[in-house]
Amino acid sequence: MATLHGGPHGAVLYVKGSSDALLERCSERLEADGGTGPCDAAALHREVDAMAARGLRVLVVARRSLPLGTRCVDHGDIEQLTFLGLVGMIDPPRAGAKRAVAACQGAGIKVKMITGDHAVTAAAIADELGLRGARVEDGRLRSVTGEELATVTDVDLPTLADDVAVFARVAPEQTPSEKHDPAKPVATREELEALLLAGLASGEPQPVMEDDWQRLRQRALAGTELRDSGWRVRRVQDLTATARGTLRTSAPVESSIGSA
After folding, report:
1. 25, 58, 135, 237: most buried, per Cβ within 10 A?
2. Are 219 and 231 in contact (CB under 8 A)?
3. Average pLDDT over the chain, rounded to whole?
4. 234 with 218, same domain?
5. Total count of domains within the chain
6. Shared-domain flag, residues 62 and 101
7. Residue 164's closest CA among 131, 207, 200, 199?
8. Residue 180 structural domain
């Protein structure tokens, strides 16, 4: 986000945004005495990571002086910025989310997080919620970014989706319903375990691909014994509010399916 402000000595462009987008565009930083000095982007990225590891969502704030009379700007003007500071915000998970995740995982459902957040922030929040998945050397949950996801082959994608719990900095076009062709679902194994895709960026869960639900419906209509085939799928609209209630009623439903 950028806003342009007029003044007696010239216009000032104020910008806020992600560290990934803005730090490389900062050529200097504001010092405590009001002067400016060199901007060490690598050091600032480390500061961002340290804040994100505490579960904070971090924004960079910067500015740029423009000539007197400037009335409009475009993307090309968001360069040669003066770094002003970092802002960390706490956006805690909704009440009951941790219990819902525990209930899902206790029932054998693999919970996945897909978010536009910073990778370190997403991993910290997922850890707080108790998500299970591959971890990196320092013990944090592994977080795969949208940029990394774009390089993953269709052959490797099922293993990645199975092992990793957190997918961060994911663009809208990379959500399962749009990134993958219906013939290539996010989990290509014949027997699909449930994926509950909790989207932090939008605040609402992302649905499993429609094609997967159609496959499940066809198997149910064909009389397939779902309980023994490995299927554990629950289509929920609100992970926090409905997961526990859904799981409480799932046992008798599966028993009925198995004995039909």
Report:
1. 58
2. yes
3. 75
4. yes
5. 2
6. no
7. 131
8. 97-259
